[in-house]
Amino acid sequence: MLRRQAFHPLAAALESFGAAVLLSLAIVFPAHALDFTVAVDAREAPRGIIHIVQSFPAKAGTMSLSYPRWIPGEHGPTGPNLDVAGLVVKGGGKVLPWRRDVVTMETIRFDVPAGVGNVDVTFDFLLDNSTAGFTSAACATPNLLLLSWNEVAFYPTGRKSDGIQCQASLTLPDRWQHATALGTVSSGGAAIKFSPCSFTTLVDSPVLCGRYFKTVELAPGDSVPVRLRMACDSEEGLKIPDSQVDALRSLVREARTLFGTQHFHHYDFLVTLSEHTAHFGLEHHQCSDDRGRERWWLDDDLRRNHSNLLSHEFVHSWNGKFRRPVGLATGDYFTPMQGDLLWVYEGLTQYLGFVLAGRSGIRTPDEARDGLARAAAQIEAGRGREWRPLVDTGTEAQLLYGARDAWQDWRRSVDFYDEGLLTWLEADVLIRTQSKGAKSLDDFCKRFHGGPNRGPEVKPYTLDDVIAALQATWPYDWAGFLREHIYEVRPHAPMNGITAGGWRMAWKDSLGPIQKASEVANKEVDESYSIGIRVDDKEARVIDVVPGSPADQAGVAPDMKLAAVNGRKYSSDVLRDAIAATPQSGRIELLCENKEFFRTYLLDYRGGSKHPTLARDNGVRDWVSEILAPHAH
Ligand SMILES: [Zn+2]
Q1: Rounded to a whole number, what is the distance in angstroms from the first to the last CA of the chain?
Q2: For residue 1, how far is its CA from the centre of ligand 1 (angstroms)?
Q3: How far is the CA of 174 from the centre of ligand 1 (A)?
Q4: How much distance in Å is there from the Cα of 73 to the middle of ligand 1?
Q5: Rounded to the nearest whole angstrom, what is the distance from the C-alpha of residue 155 to the centroid of ligand 1?
Q6: Which of 291, 296, 391, 376 is nearest to 346 (CA)?
Q7: DSSP code, position 485
Q8: Measured between alpha carbons, how far is 470 from 535 in angstroms, rounded to an integer?
Q9: Alpha carbons 96 and 138: distance in angstroms, whole number
Q10: Other C-beta atoms within 10 Å of 396: how many?
Q11: How many CA atoms lie within 13 A of 286 on its CB side?
């Protein structure tokens, strides 16, 4: 996920100085230099409603305000304008009637009478309880809230967000704590008052708040602090084991070793632990919004299922926030984004997140390889690759993120993540092999993501810049490599990183640790590689069918209900036992319900249980293990 724009010296100065300095700066920069203030009252967040008052300087004439539409990191027009309610504009003590633009629906206009120098905009933001989606999906429970500022602020229409100065305040339920990358002017009294900043910085700096709250230092003694901030639905869920704290501290050291620098003054992992929020990660320059399950740190399967999240989001501070494709560095929240370089933005991040999870010990080598095997098998199974190149999944990302699961293997999904991972692994192994270990993608990262730490800034890039940095790392026909891997239809997944890295794809009859964790966490049964179906275990519903698989050939379709397997009522055990017996039986009968109508499907299959794994190829140097081994000292 993600996006944002150029460095603002005033905002950085305000962020890095203390409150006393702020007071003196306030004399230099008087209050009217602010383009708006926003006061958020989140005391009713537990019941799903947030109250907002914004104040804007005004002058006589028509005035226009807009609500953010294109959300950084979400790569799409996902601003939840629909959940703005009770909007009233007032000036000079009178209500000023507003009207919505008939085309650009997040924009409103109203007429400011002569003599009115200020308008107040009040509205409520209605919180979504859906756990599917990104920041605008479920973000609050009776015990916690992740506040995204883009959801609670209008801004002057048409202005670049770097050039908009604003100041925010926030009122929380009694005894709730909070954390944010924003500077704080004062937190005594009812409202927390944050430092003035650009609108870019505000939107980039969500606030995590809650009743059960814990902070853990991840770079103790370092001049650039990195912290784990957690809000949870219980006190129990905050009890992160020491071994996991050690792994996260190692993540910080490994990331700094990989990139050789950083582009933040401080960094906060804002971790929400709840069964009632959406589960995903959204990157920012100096923090990330990481929403996971309540017992993430207590349950090994949940921990493994989240084991790529924090490393992925941390990498984004360098790759995605600091270095960003020109088409995603729009500098505002109204210009449409272009996702054709998401295979770099998300794909390289997916690869480096995988690498750093291994190097830091967040994942054991066995877990890291299992994650790789799973990604490779999924990407290879997707037959949508026969009609659309990888780049097209990035170009259409803003639609594909919201696509149904049904027929995903034929439509393709946001494959730039995991196919990007495989492609960047292949590039890394190629550089290591050809240079006999003298060079690697680590050198590319130091070159591409390096430079002095001036705090948050954006350095946009084009495809040519990526090719040039690869070329400078190791001379090769990188334009040809990328054309073939990214821009052309290719019938098979890029597997050379695995095979030239000392391993080969193989099958075994049991699930690896990451695959098992995913099944347990998501309550799914993945038989994509045997009979070719993925099942929602709770609903006994076919989530998707692999094109060309035995299930596909027999006529099974997504969204059918699995009523029975070989004459016995469906359960995951009944299904898996039947699959395991196919070397003898040679067939499986699935009784499926399709919109009230039942039919038996006969699957011709004798391959038994099949789950992807990696097997060592002793004839080839084990680059994969060298890539995943600890590097930091
Ligand atoms: Zn991402």
Answers
A1: 31
A2: 4
A3: 34
A4: 7
A5: 26
A6: 391
A7: I
A8: 41
A9: 33
A10: 17
A11: 26
Relative orientation angle of helices 347-360 and 418-434, to the nearest 10 degrees? 70
CA distance 309 to 518: 13
Residue 493 CA, ligand 1 centroid: distance in Å: 21
pLDDT tier for residue 190 given thresholds of 50, 70 and 90: confident
Closest CA to 524 of 514, 534, 512: 534
Does the pLDDT at position 385 exceed 60? yes
CA of 72 to the centre of ligand 1 (A): 11
CA of 272 to the centre of ligand 1 (A): 17
Distance CA 191, CA 422 (A): 48
Q: Transcribe 413-446 into DSSP letters.
A: -STTTHHHHHHHHHHHHHHHHHTTTS--HHHHHH
CA of 2 to the centre of ligand 1 (A): 6
Residues 6+ apart with CB under 8 A from 443: 431, 473, 474
Residue 164's nearest CA partner among 349, 17, 37, 41 is 37
- At 395-404, the pLDDT tens digits run 999 999 999 9
| Dihedral sign, Cα of residue 366, residue 368, residue 374, residue 376 | negative
The protein residues having their C-beta less than 5 angstroms from ligand 1 (an ion) are 1, 346
β-strands 226-232, 267-273 pairing: parallel
Cβ atoms within 10 Å of 73's Cβ, excluding its own:
27
Q: Residue type for 399, please?
A: L
State the pLDDT at residue 1.
Answer: 59
For residues 81 and 69, the answer to whether their CB atoms sit within 8 Å is: yes
* Among the listed residues 351, 323, 328, the one whose alpha carbon sits nearest the alpha carbon of residue 469: 323
DSSP 8-state class, residue 133: S
- List, in order, residues 6 or more apart from 372 with CB less than 8 Å away: 354, 421, 425, 498, 614, 624
What confidence score (pLDDT) does residue 483 get?
A: 98
Q: How far is the CA of 218 from the centre of ligand 1 (A)?
A: 21
Residues 6+ apart with CB under 8 A from 233: 141, 143, 144, 212, 273, 274, 275, 276, 294
Segment 439-468 mean pLDDT: 98
Q: Which residue has tokens 């809000």?
A: 231
Residues with Cβ within 8 Å of residue 369, at least 6 apart in sequence: 503, 613, 614, 624
Query: What is the mean pLDDT of the segment spanning 103-132?
Result: 96
Chain centroid to CA 229 = 17
Q: Give the angle subtended at the CA of 119 by the CAs of 115 and 123, to the nearest 5°.
A: 155
